Amino acid sequence: MNLCCWCLQKYPASAAAAAFHGSICSPLPPLGTDLVQQGLPSEVVKWTYLGVCRALSFATGYSALQPKSLDSIIDLQRAETLSSEDLITIWNEYHLGRGHIHASMKRSLYNLLVQRTNPCQHFVVPLWRGSGYTTMFVQARLPHMLITGLEDYKARGTQAAPYLTVTYYTEFASSKDVVLIRGDIVLPSKLEDEEGRRLLETMHSFYLNDERYKLVERFNKDTHEFEFKDVLRALDIPIG
Predict the structure, then answer these.
(1) Strand pairing of 100-105 and 54-55?
(2) Residue 65, phi-psi category: left (phi > 0), alpha (psi -120 to 50), beta (remainder)
(3) pLDDT of residue 158
(4) What was the pLDDT predicted at 106?
(5) 164, 140 in Cβ contact below 8 A?
(6) If DSSP codes are grouped into helix, strand and coil, which group holds residue 64?
(7) Measured between alpha carbons, how far is 58 from 78 in angstroms, rounded to an integer?
(8) Are 3 and 94 a contacting pair, CB within 8 Å?
(9) Fewest CB atoms within 10 A around its CB: which of 5, 11, 110, 164?
(10) Can you tell me the distance from the alpha carbon of 215 to that of 221, in angstroms, rounded to the nearest whole number?
(11) Which residues contact 52 (CB under 8 A, 6 or more apart)?
(12) How confident is the model at residue 65, as a pLDDT?
């Protein structure tokens, strides 16, 4: 069932019925050739949870993906007639089970995220997987964000394929106090939908929580003092 039919059944008397149009399940375009050239910390990072100090030399940038514009996903004029609540509900419902991550936030939180990612565009977060975790590398240049496995990034540098791309849509920030968020799972073999959702929530928690953001600042500005075990402790993940 496409979204138009779903909306007609769920909101038969509402303008929400025609707010979204078309399918957004088309595959992502291949990796482009333009590089997001951003300097990364190259100092020695203390990974003391392993009991040793490992030297990490980060490459610069990711190959860029072309995100979908919001007007290719929804009918902006009709969406403007919806309440914030209806818009968020339809946005969330439509993305379920389609290999996409869906979320939203208020304008004030998005502004804080922009303010904090600008000087601190990179971070590392663990993704818990049953009996252990995988370390993921984040690059944020809002309104876009890219997440890949740290080991893949160290091995392939700018040729590393993102596991998850995230786009923040601000078209309704002023009129509805809503920023819509869409994440695309680029490599389903590397990342499941639920894992992508947890990664996005974890990343937000480090940038939007005052205490956790200190670790982000340390990673970007004072890397030689950064210890990954502090990230694990913040998330109550065992240090083995």
Answers:
(1) unpaired
(2) beta
(3) 75
(4) 98
(5) no
(6) coil
(7) 45
(8) yes
(9) 5
(10) 10
(11) none
(12) 58
User: Would you say 87 and 4 are in contact if contact means Cβ atoms under 8 Å apart?
Assistant: no
What is the structure's pLDDT at 96?
Answer: 76
Do 90 and 101 meet the contact criterion of CB atoms below 8 Å apart? no
Q: How far is CA 4 from CA 74, 117, 183, in A?
A: 11, 36, 21
Distances 209 to 57, 113, 206 between C-alpha atoms, Å: 28, 10, 6
Across the chain, which distance is largest between two alpha carbons, in Å? Answer: 63
Three-class secondary structure of residue 82 per DSSP? coil
Could you tell me the mean pLDDT of each successive run of 10 residues in the chain, 240 residues long?
A: 33 37 32 34 32 28 64 90 95 79 96 98 93 93 95 86 95 97 92 93 98 97 94 91
Burial 9-47 (b: 16+ CB within 10 A, else e): eebeebbbbbbbbeebeeeeeebeeeeeeeebbeeebbb
The Cα–Cα gap between 20 and 12 comes to 14
Residue 27: what residue type? P
The conformation of residue 30, written as its DSSP 8-state character, comes to: P
Would you state the pLDDT for residue 164? 94
